[in-house]
Amino acid sequence: MITISGLTKVYRSRGREVTALDGVDLHVREGEVYGVIGQSGAGKSSLIRCINLLERPTSGTVTVAGQDLTALAGRGPRAGKELRRARSRIGMVFQHFNLLSTRTVQDNVELPLEILGTSGKERSRKALELLDLVGLADKAKAYPAQLSGGQKQRVGIARALAGDPKVLLSDEATSALDPETTRSILKLLRDLNQQLGLTVLLITHEMDVVKSICDSAALMDKGRIVESGTVSELLATPGSELASALFPVGGEASADDRTVLDVTFHGEAATQPVISQLSRTYNIDISILGAAIDTVGGLQVGRMRIELPGRYEDNVVPIGFLREQGLQIDVLGDEPVLVKEGAK
Amino acid sequence: MTWSEMQPLLEQACTETLIMVGWSTLIAVVLGLPIGVLLVLTDKGGLLQNTVANKVIGQIVNIGRSLPFIILMVALMSFTRWVTGTTIGSEAAIVPLAIGGIPFFARLVETAVREVDHGLVEAVQSMGGNTWTIVRKVLVPQALPSLIASTTTTVIALIGYSAMAGTVGGGGLGDLAVRYGYQRFETGLMWITVALLAVVIALIQFAGDYAARSLHRRGARSGPGPKLRLLKAKEPAAADVGKVA
Q1: Nearest CA in chain A to B240
Q2: N or C: which end of chain A has fewer CB within 10 A?
Q3: B20-49: average pLDDT
Q4: CATH class of A2-230
Q5: ipTM of this model?
Q6: What is the CATH number of domain B8-193?
Q7: How far is A134 from chain B (nearest CA, A)?
């Protein structure tokens, strides 16, 4: 649905150059919720603004629903007619809602329809229908100043959907909201994704957002995509930063007298009593340093950090046993060569 | 001088002031608004970024703003004659007043429009809106309370200017105060004129504040300022009505 390739954005100001995006490749499949996560300054905002060309990329292409938007851009800072039409088919929600304070809720939702040239009657029918969809049918005549943050974002979402978009871009839509409101907005996005088949690309700095609604995710750092894939792929990737961030477990790294392992369970293996089997079979004492079980992208996943006595070399056989059980094992420590051999 | 002598003089002067200020404000607003908006749009990072146009418009506005009004009026005499056929009388005074008012209002418009949250512009861009849509649906409506306050300021400034216009035969309250009050030592008439001007200005300021506030109240993002809260506290019923509406 959205394909980004070789996207680069360089800002020039007063002779200094700042590279916000450095060769980003990304593919969002139709009907999925895709989360891009990263810290402030990682380039997330530039990325999402390059998708509907609110920012002109320095190089690279952006294709949305089969249409190469970068080719429509033309020269100069102003958007041509075709680009504007393409933008109207991409919904966008913002961190600070960006509602017009001088218009009622209904008039805010009607704004994109006014731009599309829809007739007055049709506009108000559509706006009321959308407000009903986001659960704000009774607030049509209110002004944004009279709404709570969560309600404002619902209006923002209704407005973004007014042009019947196939793609919704969400720019930190929940970052200005409290945790409970965040959950309800995320649920709404998920429902819309399922009911309308809407493809959602969201950027966020909150791991919880990715955890609760994303099918796929990408980690951005310094303008590059460091990791990307479906959530289950990421969890199955040894040493994945995203996976360990989704599943933080405490504990220190391996030392001379102990070996620390991260065990990730998903699917079948999650139901087997592997740890007690391991302990009995090899007659070793196992300490559990940390553990978490959660649902990520609709999958039941568990992660556990355990400590085995002795050096890595002493534990090759038990680790092999765990791998045979279909578990994903990451050895923490400063012996990368051995870890790699072990992974074979 | 008796009241019956003063009354027709005052009435005529009031009418003249009203005509001069009314027309010149109208022209200043109609022409100053697009100039102010253009100053924002053509500025660096603006929607119609154009450094040359911005510099040129900015310079013209600066020249208009920096000339003392009395000099502007004298300098514009030939232009005034070309437009109205004369350089004396209230109609003739409208020309320099309007021309003095345009850059004055344009700068105020520029400040008001610049205050509009850029996120709103971005939101309308993301919907596929063009620059004209952004000006019409976002910049002007969102800046409206400030624009009304700017208009109030412009009217009051033009009343001040109109007193100077009076000295070259424009008539009006200022002229009356100078000719009768100062030159003929009719102190009574002068004080009445001064009081009248003070009342007129207070009324205009009040009306302007009220209009700006009632627009602002329904649209307020972070609530009204401290001064407004005081007013609201005195009339809770009115505030509640505003909230429901």
Answers
A1: A146
A2: C
A3: 93
A4: alpha beta
A5: 0.79
A6: 1.10.3720.10
A7: 19
